[in-house]
Structure formats: C-alpha cells, structure tokens
Amino acid sequence: MLAVLGLPLAGGALLALWGHEKWAPELNSAVSFCTFIAAILLAWKVLVSGPMVVLNEQFFIDSFNVFLVVLTAFVAFTTTLFSRPYMRNEALLSALSNYQLRLYHSMYQIFCFTMLLALTTNNLGILWVAMEGATLATVLLVSLYRTRASLEAAWKYFILCGVGIAQALFGTILIYFASEKVLGAGGAALLWTHLDAAKGSLEPTVLSIAFVFLIVGYGTKVGLVPLHSWLPDAHAEGPTPVSAVLSGLLLNVALYAVVRCKILVEGALHNRFADDLMIGFGLITVLTAAFLLWRQKDIKRLFGYSSIEHMGLMTFAFGIGANFAGLLHMTVHSLTKSAIFFSVGHAVQHSGTQAMEAIRGLVRLPAIGWGLMLGALAILGMPPFGVFASEFLILTHAMQSHPWSTPVLLVALGVAFASIFGKVQSMVWGESAGKALPHAQASLPILLHLALVLLLGLYIPPYLARWYSEAARLIG
Amino acid sequence: MPLSSQFINLLASILLLLAFAMLSQRRIRSLIRLFMVQGMTLAVSTAVIASTTNQSHLYYSALLTFSLKVVILPWILLRMIRQLNVEWDVETLINIPSTMLVGIAIVIVAFNLALPISHLAGTITRSTIGIAMACVLLSLLMMITRSKAISQVVGFLSMENGLFFAATSTTYGMPMVVELGVALDVLVGVLILGVFFFQIREKFESLDLRHLEKAEEE
Fold this sequence. Notes:
Chain A has helices at about 1-20, 25-50, 65-95, 100-120, 125-140, 150-185, 190-195, 205-220, 230-235, 240-270, 275-295, 300-320, 325-350, 365-380, 385-400, 405-430, 445-460, 460-475, and strands spanning about 50-55, 60. With about 475 residues, chain A is an all-alpha fold.
C-alpha cells in the first residue's frame, strides 16, 4: 500500500535531480514498473481478503478503486515506455533544455502520485487536495514547450480547473457541514467509510446543494460540457505522453470522485436527483463533443474532443445505473485512447505537424499507421474491440430504462464515427512526405494496449468480471 | 445577541465590503494590499470564533491564514510585480459601475441560496454563510472581468478566502489535515504561477491576457 504511493513520490524527487541524464527515461520506467507491481500486489490482497482500511483509517481500498489503481499504474507504466523514445526525439527536434527534461520527468511521477493518492484516500478533503495537486503538476507540463499556444492552453487549464475545483471545495465543505451533525466534529466526519455508513441520516437539502457544486467542480476536470474548453487545448499543446495520461487517467480519476460523491448523495436523498444530473450532463456532453469533432483540424484536438465524448458517455452510464458497462468503458477507453495518443505522438514527429491535412501515408511506419487505424476503429466502437462491448451494454441498458435517450446517443456515435473515420483514413493511406525519426518508435505499448482491448472485447476473464460486478454493486 | 457574535458579523461585513473594493480597484499594488487586509480580517475572525467556541484547532488555522495570506503570498505577489514591472492600471473588460451592479445582484442571489443552509446551521456564525458565498461569487466575477494575469490570480486567491470563511462559519473549520493540504496547494499554485508569469512575459512582453486570444477559437 505504502509502496504504491511512496514509489512515485520518491521517483519524482530523484528525477527532479537527475531527470536530464541519459538514463532518466529508464529510471522513469523502472519507477512506474515497480509502482505497477505494487498495485498488482495490492489488488491481489483486496481480491483475496476484501475491502480494507489502513493507516489510521486515512486510506480505504475496495474493489471499485483498486481496479482504477491497477489501471492507472499500468497505463502510467506503458506511457513511460512510450515516452522513452518519444522524449528523446523531442529533445532533439524541439531542443529541450536539461531543466525542461528534469521538470518533465519529475512532474510525471508527481502527477502519478497525486492520482494514486486521490484514488486511495478515504478522506474527501484529501481527495480534493490530490485533485488540485494533479492540476498543478500538469500545468507546467502543458506549457513545457513555451510556445504562445501552449502558454495560452496552460493558463486556460489552470484558471478553468482552478475555478472548477474551488466549486468542488465548496461542495466538500457542505458535505462536512451535513456530516458533522451526525458524526461529530473532527477528522472522522470527512472519512468516506464513516459517511457511507451514516449516509441515510445526512441532511438531504444540504447534500443536494453540495452535489451540484461537486459535479460542476469535478465535472470541469472530467471535461463535461459546458466546462470542457480547457481539455482540447491542454491535450493539443502538451507533450504527447502527457496527453495520453491526461486523457486515459486523469479524466477517470475525476469521474471517480464524482461517482464516490454520488453514492453518498444518493443514499441521503432517496430519489433520482443525482442520477438525473449525471444523465443530463452526460448526454449534453456526448452530443456537443460529437458535433465539435467534425470541425477539428488538429489531430490531437480531434482526439481530445473524442475523450470528452467518451467521458460524457461514462457519466451517462453511471447516471442510468449501467455501472458494469461504465466501469468496462472506463477501462477500454483509457487503454485505447492512450494507444491512439502513442501513435499520434510518433505520427506528429514523423510529419512535423499536428495539422491533419498535412499528415499523410502513416502506413509507411506500420506500427504507427496500423496502430492509429485500429485504435480509431476501436474507439469508434467497432466489434470485436472492447469499446463495442461496453457501448453495446450501455445502449441496451439505456433502451430499457431511458428509451428516449437511445436515438440521441446513436446520432452522437454516428456523427463521431463519420468525423473520425474519414480523417484517420486519409492520414493513414496515401503518399508519405515524412522524415525518419532519430530514435525508433515505441511500438510495444501501442500493440499491447490494442491487444488488451481486443481481448476484453472477445472475452472477459471470470475473475475480472467478478471484480467489475463487485465494484458495480458498490456503486449501487 | 452576544458581543462576540456581533463582532464576527461586523468582520463578515468588512469582508463583503473588501470584496467590492477589490472589484473596483484598478491599481494592482492596491489590489494586493486589499487582499492582505482581507486575509487579516479572515485571520482575526477565525481567532474570534476560536476564542468564543473554545475550538483550539481554529487558532492554528488562524495562524496559518495569517502567515500564508498576510505575509507570504502578498510578499511573493509584490515581489513579482516589482520584477515584472506591472504597476500600471488594470483595464477591466466591463466598466466599473456596471460591474458593481452585477455584484449587487450576485449578493442577493448568494443570500437566497444560503438561506436553507443557514437555517440548519447551529453555529453562532450562521448569519455569515450568505456573506461567505457572496464573497466567493464576487471573486469569480472579478476573475471574469479582469484581463491581467495577476489580477486573475488575486481573484482566485480571494475566492479561496471566501471558501475558507464559508468553512469556518458553517462548521468551525475543516479538519486540520485538509486545511494543511489546501494551504499547500495554494502556495504551490502561486509559486507555479510565478514561473508561469515569467514565461508569459517572455513570449508576450505583457501580462495582458487579451494578447493570448488565438484567432482559431473552437
């Protein structure tokens, strides 16, 4: 348990000192690999002995968050594998200084630490602190290249998320206010396990106001419309490994925070208020993002908007109670989207531009071209990939409980398909004008992720299915 | 009504007045001074609440507020504007009188919103919840209407002040570990912004964020 949190923190400190050395990328990978192993061990323990509370009740692990811990540690590890050749290429192409490399490596590990802290903490206040920490760690990564556009993106990211997260703090204060009456003042009144036990007796009016603040606040980080405008900019301007972890992990963690709060509010309110809010935000997000996809010209912005769309879909899924499908979609989306960003990163280095019109003939680099093609097909919900399975489950569930929403979702998915597929096709085929990369591209993480997504689409191992159902039951 | 609770109400109204003063202040240096006074008022009100309710942990948070928001942050900000040489007047996007009118509307909304919460609160300070919420929303308004990076940051920090005041007035403060964490985040945030300002200045030669607007806004 301590290793999961301690390793990335120590890694962050070490890389702050030696992040510019030749072997820093390897050290980065090694730290992430150890974190991943520790996460697996932790998951094993939870699988065998059930939920546990450690360290004076400050940390709480159940099947819901341990699955996200493993996913986070895994994607963080594969991203470091991708980042090794990518950042070496970048260091040559964009002339990054030692200071920038140190900053990058150190902040990457700190970012992983804050995400893992947000996932494992039992204290709603610390959850907030960790989410804010994750924003701060990535602001400087987004502006790493110090171009005009990247500074603008980072500023927008900081201010919008800062304002959003301040709303979430207000929501947290309100929850504390309600719980203090039931649980008494002091540290225990913000501990999730205690709140969960006493959720029936919390004051409903206060909690419903609190949830509005919380969903707006954490929803800003999830990328819910209308507070999404930081997301495409931050994805487009930062280094690609950062886009991959932002999209694949940070958005999940923010959604996790929303869902955790939803469990409490639902228990106190005994009505569908929280659900309806999530359904509304989710649908608007899916629809808006799908239509905005059509207008994109920048490849990284395109997939940024695609992330918004999928986060909306997940929010909707948790709103209608399709928890199993929502969790599965979280997993396959983060695997697929990070694989796409890996290929996009090399594609951009190969062609020297992020404008989709100028990217042609990626199939000349087979792993990149095919990785992008298959990744795009997977994210668009083509069978036999895992995204198809989860989207199918969400749609059938929606048909049963909220029949009116299915046409909306189908239109959105259709528009998304048309916009992304057409653009990706023209980038993959055709004559290539790109130049060879100084360091060979990282094909392993791309193929590994796509293989896993394929596997999840064809066959979910029984222990994984049991794990998901257990987590889905916890969400209620 | 006991004397101490009247005193707290007085401090709360000073906070609200300060929020309006910040909204109308055009000079950055004075803006930071106002922020300092706001932090001071907050620290005093926290200490008063602590002494009347015998909540000893509130003394620590009053101390924390004082050292962070009256000493450290203004010092960092003032140093920054000296180095960056951004003493000049702030141009607001909407003119000041109309901003004030919007501000008044916001205060009314905040009081209405706070009504159900303050009915439930058992603390001696419950009448101040509306003021705390109004402070948060007024700072938000300030962030929207200002175009200079530093004034946006001051708006952000004063929003944090409003939240902190909300926490003390509804619940006698959050648990200590949370408060420390929030304080750390704020401090780190300001330090990062310091780095950031220099980068923006390097690229744009001014801290006016309107230069940042890209043509291809999606």
